[in-house]
Task: structure prediction
Amino acid sequence: MSFIDSPRLTVIGTGYLGATHAVCMAALGYEVLGLDVDEEKIAKLASGESPIFEPGLPELLTKALDSGRLRFTTSFAEAGAFGDVHFICVGTPQQAGSDAADLTYVDAAVRGLAPHLDRRALVVGRSTVPVGTAERLTGVLRDLAPAGNDVELAWSPEFLREGFAVDDTLHPDRLVFGVASDWAEQQLRAAFKPVIEYGSPVVRTDLATAELVKVAANSYLATKISYINAMAEICETVGADVKDLADALALDDRIGGRFLKPGLGFGGGCLPKDIRAFAHRAEELGVGQSVSFLREVDKINQRRRARTVDLVGELLGGRVASARVAAWGAAFKPNSDDIRDAPALDVARTLHGLGADVRVYDPAALGNARRAFPELSYGESALDVARGADAVVLLTEWAEFREIDPDALGAVVAHRRIVDGRHVLKAERWRAAGWEYRALGRP
Ligand SMILES: NC(=O)c1ccc[n+]([C@@H]2O[C@H](COP(=O)([O-])OP(=O)(O)OC[C@H]3O[C@@H](n4cnc5c(N)ncnc54)[C@H](O)[C@@H]3O)[C@@H](O)[C@H]2O)c1
Result:
């Protein structure tokens, strides 16, 4: 096959985004080389062990390795020699002490790869970056690559959702190709051929627009969540019910119900840092006013965490110190083991800091939580951590928590008190079983 038909792909950075991308592209039939600076991660992937919890990924990883189309390396020289299209999928976390994105890893990836690009190649950024990054990196790439202007940079942001990452990668609802030439677009079309044939629409843009699509989308979603949570704050003051309010709003098809779920709010490795980095970048550009509402969106979101702690305190009659609290959930959302900026762990740690004896259970994220917060206690099941508890607080909406029988749980706790931080339990059912049930924004 010629280059244009089936480019050889590298994936630089094999974390949540990159591991999924590499595996899925190999599953689609491409020759793929995954690269990371984390040797342990690469060893795991190469031996067929998924370094992350992501439904469907382990099976697909095994298949891709067995096909011989997927390999892993830590060598940029190998990646440069192998690839026609190089995807940059490294992290862009929040900088310590600032709201800005930390671009150290993106810069290091480009600088690591560029000296090994001695023939025509396309480098494609998939990480979420502040607008203007791609233009700057285009210069870096051309200066450092032996092939000079034969190497081009494109930006194609990734929209996958953890928990649905495989399906979102194979069948994204859109592909955004930020390119500086027709050639770059052709390479991207070749690199996503089966995805496009399946029906995902392509939006071609310039580099800056592509960078903005991603942060604009995340800002919108974060705003919608904080909007309904702001309504929850009002409901709490007047004794109204935000769940009914949200249900009624959702039936308005101009508004729609998705992301209009009141509760403990958003967290994770994307939304919080992306809205902060966007606000910061807009301020740098002198247009901070345009997205200053994102500061408020962030504050509303943070207040939900504090309010959840308060609700637990109210249920305990103010006696938080030395109370036993069962915390259900650690991951920032269900079907993921990602604990980055997880609201659940924030609440658990605050309660622990107030002197409560907090025991945490999560179906997938216990290992990550234990490593990050060894000061907390952990248990092996939802019932296990609830034994002798003075209050239970549901913090991540895993399906198994929804399905728990209030009577079975009631038999192991010291007191039937529950805070539903995610509005997933049926209040009437729990109250009928003798539980004191509380949820954010509900009477
Ligand atoms: N996780 C998501 O759901 C998601 C969705 C869409 C977009 N994104 C964006 O994708 C990017 C990656 O996110 P993630 O969640 O996969 O992060 P991650 O932390 O899970 O993975 C990043 C990986 O990059 C590796 N890395 C760091 N420096 C490197 C270098 N110089 N060369 C090669 N590898 C290097 C790290 O070792 C790590 O394995 C971020 O910009 C994020 O905002 C993430």
